[in-house]
Fold this sequence. Notes:
Layout lengths: L12 H12 L3 H11 L1 E2 L6 E4 H7 L7 E2 L3 H11 L2 H9 L6 E3 H12 L4 H18 L6 E3 L12 E6 H19 L10 E2 L4 H11 L3 H6 L11 E3 H11 L6 H14 L6 H4 L25 H10 L3 H11 L7 E5 H4 L3 H8 L6 E9 L12 E7 L16 E6 L3 E4 L8 E4 L15 E4 L8 E4 L4 E4 L22 E12 L2 H23 L13 H10 L10
Parallel strand pairs: 3-7
Antiparallel strand pairs: 1-2, 2-4, 5-6, 6-8, 9-18, 10-11, 10-18, 11-12, 12-13, 14-15, 15-16, 16-17, 17-18
Amino acid sequence: xGNARSGQMDGGGVAKELENRLSNVGDLAWLKSAxxxxxxxxxxxxxxxxxxxxxxxCFKLVLPTLRDISNTTRLELFSLTSQVGLALLDVxxxxxxxxxxxxxxxxxxxxxCRQNLGAxxxxxxxxxxxxxxxxxxxxLTFNITHGGVDFSHDDDFMGYxxxxxxxxxxxICWLMMCQSAYRIEDNEDKPLELPDVDPIxxxxxxxxxxxxxxxxxxxxxxxxxxxEEFSVTKLLSWMLSTILGLSDCVPRYFQAQLxxxxxxxxxxxxxxxxKYSIRASVMHAPVECLQxxxxxxxxxxxxxxxxxxxxxxxxxxxxxxxxxxxFASILYRSTIHGRGMNRFWAQVDGYHGALLILIAVxxxxxxxxxxxGEKINVGAILKNGFENKDSYYGSPGNCLFGLSPAFIPxxxxxxxxxxxxxxxxAPGIMYQVQPKPNGIGFGGDHGKERLWLDEDFxxxxxxxxxMDRTYQPGSIIPNQGYTPIKAKVVEVEVWGLGGEAAKxxxxxxxxxxxxxxxxxxxxxxKAFGNWSESPEKMMMNMVSDPNNVQRxxx
Length: 554
């Protein structure tokens, strides 16, 4: 292995076209290195090829040590992860001959990793999951139409996915993303925490439940189903609009494993063994796999990351893998720093990076909502931090979230600009006829905010989307009606996502503010001149005893 020359890689005109396209995006050089590491000369054809067993080892996913999961879930994940390599080969390559030449190697990479449309990448993910279930001998409840997946059709899949299988799809995607993002050497004694995917599954069930006709169409695919089913076509549409980040799972994992080959970290599957590790390809800061506390659980962090498409998505995804302040740092927590706007501003003032605010509430009993008495988490992302202003501000990159019991992202519509409002009156301010309210609001308008957190952080008011043109319509709280829902606040957290640069800028801002405050406290008596000759002293004497006769100096 590893002795293939560039001349042996020449596969004709098709290979040349592939090489030109991949060279333009900077992938060709390291793909040649990866191919050279695992290729041999075929005894039958004399071509330079890669054996299917070697490729299977390259894409191998070993189940890590997971904390606090049931034995049933552990066995299901073990059965699925053992077939990840074969399922990826079924999607990317034609393995009828049991080997792949240079042209097929490039075609497989381009088909999996260089698709630009999110809808196509989601179909690739579903095709991969289809082969994964088939390899794991799990009863199939959906099938491929047209004899194969044609990305130009809208009905490439027929049938439905069970609730349990959808949960396993999400968990497998998280494990693949985890391995394609990190490699922590010699940390087997620190188990990972599997994210809670129930909020995502519950949100999908509200939209994608299969109808009776769809069940009849898929009747021949499985003998019996004992749980809820999701229509495949509805699920694809919902994932495209809600958790589009899931479409990058297969391309990221596929490319990361090949890049690892090219870098020489992994030569072939014989040397990989069963030792599991997670690679840190970008950031090398120390990490701690400790028990999470607070509202930003791995499940919430990962769900939010799937709904975003910028660097915030990367930081929150990494936060769901390991706990590290380099990705998300706590700025404010009401149970530690105290409640109210004054305590809040003392912690977040001057932070001008991206922020994530999380609010845990319990709707009061008697409200017209089936969620009364049930703990609910909501949140919002702010691209440029909070400002103390008496008017709305923000940017179109802001987003509202219903986080539990169902994950519901509400992005900006572009029709309104009332993104966020945060205001508290400074002490000593003059009387105002119509003072602006103190508190934090999102969407809507003054007095009719979509979300309103009062100045004491005691109550959160949630209003119907009819009051709001800034954020997308939808229920932040499941089954929310037109009546405003008033919920008692349990906890408020603010997480900084701006990295070390934003934190250093905030520290410098707070130092300047402290310096100015100290200067205002000090009184320089020399600036007032001679007190005995000042007009103020004469006025004070006159006020103290107006009847006292003052001798006029001539």
